[in-house]
Amino acid sequence: MPEPVARTDFPTPPWLLSARDGVALRALAAGLLDSTASDLDLAYSLATRTPSALRVLVPAGDRTALEAVASGEKPGQPVPARPRLTFASRGSKLAPGRETEFSQRFPLFSDTFDTMLGDYHDWLFAFQAALCCLLESWGLRPEAVARVTRRPWDDTSLVLDLTPPSVRDLLAELARLHTAGIPVAWNEVFAGSGAQRVDLPAETLLYRTRWVPVPPRSGQAELLEIPPGADIRSHALETLRHREDRLVVTTNATGPDPDLASAAVWGLLNAAAAKTTVVDLDRPTPAAELLDLVGGSTEPRLAIRDGVPHAFRVAPAADSPTRPIDPSGTVLVTGGTGRIGSLLAAHLVAEHGVRHLVLASRSGPAAERLPTDLDADVRVAAIDAADPGQVESLIASCTPPLTAVIHCAAVFDEPFAAGRTPECPDPVLRAKTDSAWVLHQATEHLPLSAFVLFSSLAGTFGEAGENYSAANRFLDALATRRRAHGLPAVSIAWGRWDPAVFDAALGSEEPVVFGPGESPVEQTRLPREIVPALLTSVPAGR
After folding, report:
1. How far apart (Å, rounded) are the C-alpha atoms in residues 309 and 326?
2. Is the overall model pTM greater than 0.90, yes or no?
3. At 504, phi and psi to the nearest 5?
4. Structural domains in the chain, sorted by start
5. Which of 128, 139, 152, 145 shows the shortest CA–CA distance to 181?
6. What are phi and psi of 92, to 5 degrees?
7. How far apart are CA 36 and CA 127, in angstroms?
8. Does the UniProt entry include the keyword Transferase (predicted)?
């Protein structure tokens, strides 16, 4: 039997990158650019991790290819449904002696080849029989074996040629099959290679906002000051009517114990014109001093803390162990009969072991989408969550007692600012803001394990209407305020629903977190000159 080859002589297969979505895939590629591990160790570690649905192949150590994935130029491909594997012999120019490379690296191949050659005296047959045995030991079991074919294979068929010219070519073919959805026992493939498992870049699930000091920039601007505790609607409308070339000044809209009305105005202004700059103060500041600090700033959002201007930025949140929802009590989900509420209910039951759910909404049992087949006691209640009396009655009726609140109710339709008056009914604010405040007041004396608010990126980036942005910023501020008073709370600013983001957010040390997807990270793919200022601290592709 040939002597086993040294580790340095084992061909390195392509790197198998996979992730749950495009953001995570690009972040993985960007992280690999900074890795100092060997190409073989990275190939082994990438191949043997649990694969995700979005996959792409990269030649080992090819920085140009990694950069293409990290930038989004080379996107991943989703795994097709139920691919079929066929072993085929298309004819070969292989000559006796080629088996030596395979025999040196794979003892099973060597033993099988020697046996078959001794029994049948047919070199090509012995080679292909030995290769079939080796492939089956790696978990590849074909649905068919064909000698040649003249017809095209159908879209679900994947073909592996049984006459690879080298081990390197065989490993590349295995990587191609893996990317297309064929399971491969990579631990067996790498056996004897000497490859070591190394740490891979962690997938970022959560992002947070942070304030970074920036140099003062003096200048002239018209000031509009919104005092603490001001009426949200009247000041919001006044601001939107006169929003050109202004510094809008709020007080304590973004602090550790924020003023909720100021926070809502802050969110509303994210949907206003780009010429509006919002400055949040921690104490009263004379106009002349304020203009000296930020009058000429191009930052859209600023905070003055101890006389120093700070700019709003986005950064990855620190990893924290998740804190599962307490399954011993009742979990109240507002907006529970909507699409997100139904998905959340199923997740709470399946992954958190929740056995008592109250799904509250205005429609209640009349809703079109009601969760079915849940292994739990599910009660559907028709209530207005902005009505204190109805909420208190519902909480009092919970058996077992309430242990968690998840507020995901929302209304998306709203009139344009130009056609609104302070007296105009506001379904957006009522569904999110008023309901959240009522839930807070009704439960602040209860020993809850979780108080989760479903916010939106609109609160920070102004991607929706003015009221929707204001309402979501209010939720973020409420979560921050509850944390400041020792109460459980987290506000998740969603890009799109993802149960892994929900689970990660439950353990976050931050009161407000962002999920990936159509998120801050996506926006950093834009040309640098049009990336929003608050995103400039997020590395592109990370």
Report:
1. 42
2. no
3. -65, -40
4. 7-189 (3.40.366.10), 207-316 (3.40.50.11460), 330-535 (3.40.50.720)
5. 139
6. -145, 150
7. 38
8. yes
